[in-house]
Amino acid sequence: MSEVLKVTIISDVIAALDAGHLKLTDVESVVAHTEHSYASVVDTFVDDAGLNFELAKQANRLLARFISSADHQLTPAERLIDMGMMYLDFAESHPGLFNYMFSYEDKDKWLDQNFAEIAHANFALLQQTIKEGIEKGVFVAKYEPVLSLSAWSMIQGLAHIQANRLSPLSESLSQEAKRQVLENLYSGLLTDSYKAVYKA
């Protein structure tokens, strides 16, 4: 398998997804909506499952690059907002891939350690920020088991609204407005003492 060809095909599939040209990610649909031949796609990925497995891994890698670009010099609460903004940037710049990531079904994907590590790395970044915030008294310690999931769920919902333009305000929200929405969503994660400082 040519690694260069694999990367090229996956990049073209992502571009076709984001442009709205590609709705299904089986081999025949990919061949129909890219310039790659059936033989080259099958030789590279074998079948639909192989193609989608590599696409899902690349999607998670790309998301990780966005999330990890958040400013790690910020305080935990501010960094959480920045990570959320990066998540929104990913969803809005890759709407097709974003939707694909959360509709891709393969019960065996989690059995592959490489896939699991890539996919869980994104959640680990969030967990690390929450843990640091708890240690510094920023987040409510007694809610530690659900803080990361709460934060992820909230940003996932907003990202879905933005990526799919489900709100009449989706296209008109400025960066400042999106940040304000995130601050409102995440305010419940903060301790009472920190809330007072945060609003000052």
TrEMBL record:
Q: Which UniProt keywords apply?
A: Transcription, Transcription regulation
Which intervals hold domain HTH-type transcriptional regulator MT1864/Rv1816-like C-terminal? 82-165
Keyword Transcription regulation tagged = yes
Q: Does the keyword Transcription apply?
A: yes
**Domain of life of the organism in this record?**
Bacteria
Q: Name one Pfam family in it.
A: TetR_C_33
According to UniProt, the name of this protein is WHG domain-containing protein
